[in-house]
Every structure is written in structure tokens, then in C-alpha cells.
Design goal:
139 residues; alpha/beta; Rossmann fold; 5-stranded parallel beta sheet; 8 helices; globular
Length: 139
């Protein structure tokens, strides 16, 4: 099973050593992130540094370590799905078209997001952090 990460999941893992970071780094699941989303991570770097209290070098090290467990999805692999995903997400959240397109590009892929608006689309299953935590740590 492929799990497409919403950018906020990766940002959460960058901000603090949390359950989210633990799941990414120790669950052994197949995590993927659209390469287009790396621009958003970079755009929010100052906010992440402020909230995390990390010096820039620790931020870079943490991002690099997390990306050892996350495969970037090349834009070419999701191009065919972008129009269909846009039709579905346009009135929900146009910024999240890329995540739905990425999940649609792989059979049995799901999206990991804590954003409630993803529940308004019915094309791809969505899992929340709490669900993943219970699934793998039997909490």
C-alpha cells in the first residue's frame, strides 16, 4: 500500500519529534510525496524554524532524514490524473489537487492527512495520524 503524504504531515514531523515523525521513520510503510510539494515545504521553512526552535542545520538534517523514508513522486507520474483530481478538489481545496492526483496515479494508494476537507472527496481513502498510530502501535 502506498501512502501519499499531505504536506502538513511532513511539516508536522519537521516541527517536533512526534508520533507523526515516529510513524514515518519506523513503520516501514511506503510513503510518497509529490515532488511539487517540496516547494511548499521550502516556502514554509521560516515558519517551521520558528515553531520547531531548530537551528537551520538541524532543520536540514531532520528534513533529509525524513526524506530517507519518503519517495518523491515525479510530476510526470501524476500528470494524467491532474485534470480529474482538479474536477474533484476544485470546490473543496484547489491546493490539494496534487495529493489526490498522486494517490489516483497508484492503485490502492491512500492519502495521509489530518485535514477534514479530504473527507469530502470519495475517490481515494484518507487516513488520519491517529488511525495510523492505532494501527501500528495498538494504542
Amino acid at each position: 500500500m502506498i501512502i501519499v503524504l499531505d504536506t502538513n504531515i511532513l511539516i508536522s514531523a519537521l516541527i517536533r519529534d512526534s508520533v507523526t515523525r515516529e510513524i514515518i521513520m519506523s513503520s516501514g510503510l511506503d510513503f510518497r510525496l509529490p515532488e511539487l510539494s517540496m516547494h511548499e515545504i521550502r516556502k514554509h521553512k521560516t515558519m517551521i524554524l520558528g515553531k520547531s526552535g531548530l537551528p537551520e542545520s538541524a532543520y536540514e538534517n531532520t528534513l533529509n532524514k525524513l526524506m530517507e523514508y519518503v519517495l518523491l513522486i515525479p510530476t510526470e507520474e501524476i500528470k494524467e490524473m491532474l485534470d480529474d483530481a482538479k474536477k474533484i478538489m476544485l470546490h473543496i481545496d484547489p491546493n490539494d489537487v496534487v495529493f489526490l492526483a498522486a494517490a489516483m496515479a497508484y492503485p490502492s494508494a491512500i492519502i495521509w492527512s489530518d485535514d477534514r476537507h479530504f473527507e469530502r472527496q470519495k475517490k481515494v481513502a484518507v487516513v488520519k495520524t491517529e488511525q495510523l498510530f492505532r494501527m501500528f502501535y495498538k494504542a
